[in-house]
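note to self: dont lose this again. the chain is below, predicted strucutre after it. 309 aa total, dont forget to put it in the shared folder this time
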Amino acid sequence: MADERVLVTGASGFVGPHVVAALIRAGYRPRLAQRGQKPVPAGAEAIVTGDLMSPVDWRTALEGIDHVVHMAGLAHAGPGLDEALYRRLNTEATLELARAAQAAGVQRFVYLSSIKALTDAVDGPPLREDRQPAPGDAYGRSKLAAEQGLAALDLDWVALRPVLIYGPGVKANMAALLKLARLPVPLPFGGLKAPRSLLAVENLASAILFALMPACPARQSYALSDPDPISVSDMLAAMRAGLGRGPGLLPVPEAWLRRLARLAGREDTFLKLAGSLVARPERLLSAGWRPQVETKAALARLAASSRAG
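---
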């Protein structure tokens, strides 16, 4: 891997800086595709490629490139967005880059997909990686369509399907949970015991590094998560441990909380956080990937760093 060059898209998002830093530490030379000129970390270079809403001429960006890590796209934003927008940014733009990478002789194309390409269900049994994909919304369909398009190319590709990612700078539901953990009062969530798969951003970065290696079998999709699922009550307890506190969790039954959420018109939001969604990374682990951090320790560090910030 020494001095191998990697074109990285989506480097300015939540996970991008962590991935770029991991690539540099591992000895790769990242080239960051950007919409406009921005500073880049030492050890990386930048190239302006413009917005993905229109087709991009990737030839210059791919000159001398050994691998591609494609993370750019439209993030899951819930209902209301035009399906054509998801398809343009998550499917068509991905395949345009992949076809250009194939023409340029790129060795490995790593695509950051989503577990939503497999399912949008919560409160179900643990997901099997060999199950028939059944995405439940436009975002998941756009990610699955990109994977299917990659499969039609003569290219060594790997699609990673991460679950909910957490780490410094996290937003949305995990950020809300962190705010709850920081409240100096007991919380009524001790009864939320449904197992939930999460993914530390450090483990995401290490999985991308592994996916670039010949040891990772190409031309297939992989569920990506921390190996052991965790309940909401244990998430909060780990975060509070990082804040130097005891759990402070009251064992209010989950059914009561769900009923209250339903009355408030927030049952979907409640299920996204507290429902059971287990997707173990069996294929990656069998191939030899080893996570860098353990979930409870990573959650404790996240909480501690949020207090410091």
